[in-house]
Amino acid sequence: MARFATASFARWGPRLALLGALGGCVEPYAPEIIDAPNSFLVVDGFINGNGRTRIQLTRTLNVAATTAPPVEKGAKLFILDDAGTRYPLTEKTAGAYQSDSLLLSPARQYQLRITTTAGNAVYESARVALKATPPIDQLGWRVQDEQVRLLLSTHDPAQATRYYRWGVAETWEFNAAFQSYLEYDRVKDDIVDRTTPIYTCWHTNRLSAIKQGSSAQLSQDALADVELLHFPRQDERFKIRYSLLVSQYAETAEEFAYYELLRKNTEAVGTVNDPLPVQLTGNVRRVDNAQEPVLGYVGAHTVQQKRIFITRAELPFVDFYQYDTPYKNCVVDTLKGAANDPNVVPISRTRNPDGILAGSRNCVDCRQRGSNVKPSFW
């Protein structure tokens, strides 16, 4: 039987609240690594064999902390192969590091080396072979039980992959509740004809869920109709146009097992039937102190991608008013307050020359929920 797994793990490294069941009693449980006051390194990312490697460095927080996880700034990172060649990463934003676009040799093995600014500590990931990821055969969808189900099929004719992980990014076009033809001009301190479009926007959502599949128990290295996502067909995503981009990664058995443990830990909700949380052991260590806990698993693989689009006309008919949007309670009213109120957007003039119809910014300005810049792939 093929194995599929998904789990939400937003901010999984820096703060991981886990619950366990012991002796019939449900009590909060936090592994020492997370519950301790120490600040341990969290390494999020992988070595990309056919593109840019992106690594995010943060520090752990106590499970009870309410602040954002601290990022690890100013570190020196590079990829090192078994021939001694180095490929540097540069810090693009605080704690986020990126390499140039690389085409790495599949004949070499690779590891990530990190030198932190504080304490000049050196961390290394285990040296691993570069896994070649097979292409995605098909990315599609079907409507079943009033749900739009996004499906993926893939296979490796060389029978050499067996373990797969997927990254998912979705984008959809949407309109605000009302189209505004007017805007407030601060220089003129007056309402003028609109020049900045705020009616149509695009929202992009990069899922932080662990999505994996394995053909290890199958005779063929193939997975068919793996369900990545599903949404009600009246979801706002499908009101105009929807796009799904899937990135596929070939994993080793060890990397797959690491993410399975991570999935199980982050799924725990504290019921008596929950599995006990397991402390994660990745493949990153501190060179001069192997006992220091480090969170993260740095694999090395090429990436295969595929994108699809779904337009409203392709789906079973749904009336515009039936779509589930956050604008159902939006109303238009005559502008009564100051024209420069940042929470109100003028929409149009009434028959009364001095009358202005207006609505709340959340209802009229689509930029509150997305970008008014059309994506390059649209």
Helix content: under 10%
Main sheet attributes: strand count, strand direction, barrel closure: 9 strands, antiparallel
Query: How many helical stretches?
Result: 3
SS content category:
mainly beta
Number of domains: 1
Shape: globular
Task: Give the SSE string.
Answer: EEEHEEEEEEEEEEEEEEEEEEHEEEEEEH
Averaging pLDDT over every residue, what do you get? 88
Low-pLDDT ranges = 4-12, 15-29
How many strands in all? Answer: 27
Strand content: 35-45%
Protein name: DUF4249 domain-containing protein
Pfam families: DUF4249
Organism: Hymenobacter coccineus
InterPro entries: DUF4249
Keywords summarizing the entry:
378 residues; DUF4249 domain-containing protein; 6% helix; six-stranded antiparallel beta sheet; DUF4249; globular; 27 strands; mainly beta; nine-stranded antiparallel beta sheet
What does this structure look like?
The chain has about 375 residues and is mostly beta strands. It has one domain. It has 3 helices and 27 strands. The protein has helices spanning about 30-35, 255-265, 360-365; strands at about 5-10, 20, 25-30, 40-45, 45-50, 50-60, 75-80, 85-95, 95-100, 110-115, 120-125, 130, 135-145, 145-155, 165-175, 180-185, 190-195, 200-205, 210-215, 220-230, 240-250, 285, 300, 305-310, 335, 345-350, 355-360. Strands 4, 6, 7, 8, 9, 10, 11, 12 and 22 form a 9-stranded antiparallel sheet that branches. Strands 1, 15, 18, 19, 21 and 24 form a 6-stranded antiparallel sheet that branches. A hairpin with a 2-residue loop joins strand 2 and strand 3. It is globular and about 75 Å long. The two termini are about 40 Å apart. Residues about 5-10 and about 15-30 have low confidence and may be disordered.
